[in-house]
Design a protein that fits this description.
By secondary structure, the chain is of the alpha/beta class. Helices cover about 30% and strands about 15% of the residues.
Length: about 290
């Protein structure tokens, strides 16, 4: 059985000390261990930005793709080999700016992958510009007079677009985040795990202290029904998406893979591809 050490690599991290991404990395590793998953059965597709380096620090199959393209690549991996636990990872800039088109269609397609977003509400790798999730009035190098654009409400957007599992965590709340990731991986379909992951270097507004004082934990509310889509949207709107826990879970989710006729449950590498001459000749005849 795999341990935390089995999911670590020897590469030294270049994240800033105190970066929230360390917490996301640890939670991912803990969740995979607690699910009794082996490194050779995990594939992680990561995007561009500080968050995109996470694949280098998890011992598994790792695909580092171009900006905003983690979701189509992750879906392709899962469809090629359903036997793998497939994770996509990235930041708010990677996922909700250049990657927004892919995000929308991945939500409605419902391929069985888990998308972990490290949302620090700023562009960290390029040294501190306003991102799609930055609040109005936010002062950065790209908005010195304050951000005049409305921020993306990515969790409301996910629910409205048909995502069957929407959750939000805080990178420093390891106990809750590990449980969220475990349930997301086990969910039959596309699962969004948005995670507030403070950038201690460039974002002095959305800090650990800010989140601890503002976040509402729905997991601690015995009256909250995570299967009620309208209640989930209401909760997110009322609290400006400053909510943690499993916000929405569709009990009737059907995976994309299960709707494709003739789609084999075995990964391509384990499928038998024996074709008799008569069938093969019929296929070739179509291209003459």
């Amino acid at each position: 059985m795999a341990t935390m050490a089995d999911f670590r690599t020897s590469e030294k991290s270049w994240w800033c000390p105190g970066c929230g991404d360390f917490g996301v990395l640890a939670a991912l590793q803990k969740a995979l261990v607690e699910l009794a998953t082996e490194p050779e059965n995990v594939a992680l597709v990561a995007g561009i930005g500080c968050s995109g380096k996470i694949g280098n620090y998890i011992n598994s199959y790792n695909l580092h793709v171009v900006h905003g393209r983690s979701l189509p690549a992750a879906q392709a991996v899962k469809l090629a080999n359903r036997e793998l636990t497939v994770l996509a990872a990235g930041g708010d800039g990677d996922g909700f700016a250049i990657g927004m088109g892919h995000y929308m269609h991945a939500l409605r397609r419902n391929v069985d992958i888990t998308y972990v977003v490290m949302d620090n509400q700023i562009y960290g790798l390029t040294k501190g510009q306003t991102s799609p999730t930055s609040d109005g009035g936010f002062h950065t190098k790209s908005t010195p007079n304050g951000n005049i654009e409305k921020s993306v409400n990515q969790m409301q957007l996910a629910i409205a677009s048909g995502c069957g599992f929407v959750a939000n965590g805080l990178s420093s709340n390891q106990k809750q985040l590990v449980q969220i990731i475990k349930q997301a991986i086990q969910f039959p379909g596309f699962a969004l795990v948005n995670t507030y992951s403070p950038c201690v270097t460039f974002n002095k507004v959305n800090t650990y202290d800010f989140y601890k004082s503002e976040l509402v934990n729905v997991d601690e509310d015995p009256t909250y029904d995570r299967h009620d889509k309208f209640a989930a949207m209401k909760m997110l709107m009322e609290h400006n998406e400053l909510v943690t826990g499993i916000i929405y879970e569709d009990p009737n989710s059907t995976r994309y893979e299960d709707l494709v006729k003739g789609f084999k449950p075995e990964g391509i590498v384990n499928q038998k591809w024996e074709v008799d001459d008569e069938t093969w000749n019929k296929v070739l005849a179509q291209y003459k």
